[in-house]
Recover the amino acids of this structure.
C-alpha cells in the first residue's frame, strides 16, 4: 500500500462542530476556486498527533473523493509550505523539485500549476490553502500570491472562531460571536485587499456568523433536551 493511497474519511459520526466546520470550509474553497478560476481549491489541516496533511475541504477536481485523505508531513508543495510557513507559486510543476507527482497522481488529478499559502494560528502553521491551475487570463504572480495570502489569513481567523465556539465539557457553547478583537483584526486588513478579496472575506464573515449562531442554538437545544 502506497503512502499516497486515498483513504476513506473516518466512519464515526461527525459532531455538530465538525459539520459546521466542514460546511464553512467547503464554502470557503468554493469561493477561492471562483476567484482564481481554478481547476480546484482545497484546505489542508495539519494533524497535530502525526503531522500529516489532511484534506479538509475540496472544490473542483477531487471534491467527492479527497476529503479525509492524508499525506505524510513534507509531501510536495503543500508540505513545503506547511514546513516553511511561506506562500509559493509554481507556474510549471514539471520544473519544480518540490512537486510530488506520486502524490498528485494518487488524487486522480495532476496539475500544471500550484499556488499554496500557509494558515497560521498563534504563530504556528495549522494548515495550507491550495489552488490548482488558476485560469489562463494574464495575471501577476505577486498579485495572486498577495490575494491568496490575504484569504489564508482570513480563513485562519474564521477557523479560530470555529475552535472557540466548540462546546465545553459542560456542553455549553463558548461565545465566539462576541470576540470583537479577532473580528477587528480581520476588518483592519480588508482595506489592503482587492475589491474581489474584500467581498469574499466579508461574505466569509457573514457565513461564519450564521453558521456559528446556528451551532450555538443547536448546542443550547441539546442542553435543554438533556
Amino acid at each position: 500500500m502506497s503512502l499516497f493511497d486515498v483513504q476513506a474519511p473516518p466512519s464515526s459520526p461527525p459532531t455538530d462542530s465538525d459539520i459546521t466546520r466542514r460546511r464553512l470550509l467547503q464554502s470557503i474553497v468554493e469561493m477561492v476556486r471562483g476567484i482564481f478560476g481554478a481547476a480546484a481549491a482545497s484546505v489542508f489541516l495539519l494533524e497535530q498527533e502525526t503531522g500529516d496533511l489532511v484534506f479538509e475541504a475540496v472544490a473542483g477536481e477531487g471534491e467527492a473523493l479527497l476529503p479525509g485523505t492524508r499525506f505524510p508531513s513534507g509531501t510536495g508543495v503543500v508540505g513545503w509550505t506547511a514546513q516553511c510557513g511561506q506562500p509559493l507559486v509554481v507556474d510549471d510543476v514539471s520544473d519544480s523539485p518540490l512537486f510530488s507527482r506520486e502524490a498528485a497522481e494518487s488524487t486522480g488529478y495532476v496539475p500544471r500549476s500550484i499556488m499554496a499559502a500557509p494558515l497560521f494560528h498563534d504563530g504556528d502553521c495549522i494548515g495550507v490553502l491550495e489552488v490548482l491551475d488558476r485560469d489562463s487570463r494574464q495575471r501577476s504572480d505577486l498579485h495572486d500570491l498577495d490575494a491568496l495570502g490575504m484569504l489564508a489569513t482570513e480563513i485562519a481567523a474564521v477557523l479560530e472562531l470555529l475552535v472557540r465556539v466548540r462546546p465545553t465539557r459542560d456542553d455549553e457553547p463558548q461565545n465566539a460571536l462576541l470576540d470583537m478583537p479577532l473580528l477587528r483584526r480581520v476588518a483592519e486588513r480588508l482595506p489592503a485587499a482587492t475589491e474581489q478579496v474584500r467581498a469574499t472575506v466579508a461574505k466569509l464573515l457573514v457565513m461564519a456568523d450564521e453558521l456559528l449562531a446556528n451551532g450555538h442554538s443547536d448546542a443550547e437545544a441539546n442542553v435543554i433536551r438533556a
Remarks:
- The longest strand covers residues 124-132.
- The radius of gyration is 18 Å.
- The mean pLDDT is 75.
- Strands lie at 40-46, 53-60, 70-71, 88-90, 114-121, 124-132.
